[in-house]
Records
---
Amino acid sequence: MIKFKNVYKKYKLDKSILTAVNDVNFEVDDGEIYGIIGYSGAGKSTLVRILDGLEAPTSGSIEINGKDISKLSNKSLREQRKKIGMIFQHFNLLWSRTIIENVELPLEISGISKAERRKQAEEFIKLVG
Ligand SMILES: Nc1ncnc2c1ncn2[C@@H]1O[C@H](COP(=O)(O)OP(=O)(O)OP(=O)(O)O)[C@@H](O)[C@H]1O
Ligand SMILES: [Mg+2]
């Protein structure tokens, strides 16, 4: 279960404060599918980045299966992220790598052998055509 409780994200600008996420509360039970809709700049991407721990909330708590992800150590957060699939709004590809090498990157960081990661990456590429 995912639980957002009184989540705020405020950015300090030069002369003002921008509230990107304003007191967000919701729960997603196991197996439920949620969509977040809103106009451009409403804070959707910020909300999702907070869920993945890429941004810390200014206040509030985010629980995933009872664990407050804003309180995890960096190491635990990296482990947690392996269980969260995220497609970025911008692709964030490494230009120095080919497509298949980009797909292989997370497997490489996870210490999977060269032969095995090539095999898996080829399967993923086939899957999406
Ligand atoms: N790092 C940052 N510093 C300052 N302001 C930011 C930062 N990131 C996002 N914002 C601001 O927070 C607000 C929400 O941005 P966000 O990218 O979450 O919106 P969005 O709903 O994903 O928009 P879009 O539909 O265009 O993708 C915007 O006003 C944006 O300019
Ligand atoms: Mg966005």
---
Amino acid sequence: MIFVTTSHDPTEAQVEKAKKLADELKLPYLIRRNHPNISKETHGEYCYVIEKDRIVVKSEHLEFFFHPSMAKVRMKNIQKGLKDHLIDCLQLSGDEVILDTTLGLGTEAILMAAFLDSGRVVGIEGSTPIFVVVRDGLENHKAKESWINAAMKKIQVLHADFKEFLRSCPEESYDIVYCDPMFENPVFESSSMNPLRPFAIYDTVDIDDVNHMVRVAKRRVVLKAHAKDSLFKRISVDKIFGSKRSQVLYGVIDKR
Ligand SMILES: C[S@@+](CC[C@H](N)C(=O)[O-])C[C@H]1O[C@@H](n2cnc3c(N)ncnc32)[C@H](O)[C@@H]1O
């Protein structure tokens, strides 16, 4: 069963937040006092636990919550003078509006937003639990680093299927369209992606989707894939950025 509850001894604000989320998702709200062992009650599904400062999605065997740790690691590497292939290939001026069609944990949305002054990021996520956790994290997480807090404020999160969303967008309505679907060849080793995997949508990006991305983008489209994936064999791009070591590739289609 999927349901919403709080941590033990919740504040009034937590109870309010839990009831509001249950209402929004049309799910039952369980009073925690009456349900001490919640993960056992999920019976192969999961529940949303409203804690004091975050939302945790729990099932019997795992926990999924928001944390911007990978954005922090990537920014530290940039500050050390190392290349970040995504930031390199975006060629940002700072005023862009970026459509991130696959928000996931929001790691790359945060990183991109950190390089925007007047620009912003619109992030699309189709999975309900990922959308709920990351929307709340971007709104309420208080990072020690002020650049992360500022970047998170520049991201608007939408719950949608990016395929449908793209088809509803007018021509050239975003400067850049970014798409990072789940890899066909996942990298499991020490991956920050692991807690997200059971909740993610595993859609394939086809040529029709890319044609819509090109239609919707004013400047460029960036696609991400693992070197062993079929994406860049099926879809031709102008330039591929990436590292041989990590096998993570970013393909760029330039419009102007
Ligand atoms: C590899 S993750 C993206 C990771 C992200 N770039 C980050 O930095 O955290 C892909 C995400 O896209 C979502 N997704 C896949 N297909 C989708 C679709 N058709 N519509 C919306 N979201 C989708 C998955 O649920 C998953 O959260």
